[in-house]
Design a protein that fits this description.
209 residues; alpha+beta; eight-stranded antiparallel barrel; 51% strand; elongated
Length: 209
């Protein structure tokens, strides 16, 4: 008898606690832990560039097809990484004749269809700024480049967490074997320096089962 009373004394509080919960409370489960793995959302991201034309103005363009995957935990910046794959043939400046020239004579997309970037180091230089160092490979040639990035923070939405970055860098096209130099009345038609702007809004990737 004494043993039965003890068992009942233990079960009754638990039963009362469960009875007081709503169905939603009883079935609620905690949100999944963050994975800190992100993929660029192409609808809200862009890789753009600009290059001097005739030494006096700029031609602006962008790449329409690319992917970027990030590993980013705001509390562990030194462990962050990013990889990007850009389809060279997706270059666009709004002029088909010029784009064909760029694909054929500058980027040689038939031989080198992809441009890649792989980070080697990420440093926090200010609360909202990162310096991302990595290898950029274009036309089969790899050079180290540095991206200066602004961090947009992390936002939780009904469709999951999102984060955002804006980064800039510049490079010399001749460093990547793009040696074609055409002149018009003594002015270089396409400048050597290429300025690049990257805007990425990324969604968190689910944990792989």
């Amino acid at each position: 008898m004494t043993r039965s009373i003890v068992v009942l004394a233990l079960l009754v509080p638990a039963a009362i606690s469960l009875a007081g919960q709503t169905p939603q409370q009883a079935s609620a489960t905690p949100p999944p832990p963050p994975t800190n793995r992100w993929s660029a959302d192409p609808a809200h991201s862009a890789i753009a560039f600009r290059v001097r034309h005739l030494g006096i103005t700029w031609v602006n363009g962008a790449f329409g097809q690319w992917t970027a995957d990030l590993n980013y935990d705001p509390t562990k910046t030194e462990a962050a990484s990013v990889t990007a794959h850009i389809q060279a043939a997706s270059i666009s400046t709004g002029n088909e004749r010029r784009d064909t020239d760029l694909r054929t004579n500058y980027l040689a997309v038939d031989s080198f269809p992809e441009i890649t970037f792989t980070s080697t180091r990420v440093e926090r230089v200010a609360p909202d700024r990162l310096r991302i160092t990595g290898n950029l490979t274009m036309r089969g040639i790899t050079h180290l480049v540095v991206l200066d990035a602004d961090v947009g923070g992390v936002l939780t939405t009904p469709r999951g967490r999102r984060t955002a970055f804006s980064a800039t860098t510049s490079l010399k096209r001749q460093d990547y074997g793009i040696m074609l130099n055409r002149f018009m009345e003594g002015a270089q038609i396409v400048g050597d320096e290429v300025r690049i702007t990257i805007d990425v809004e990324a969604t968190e990737r689910a944990t792989t089962p």
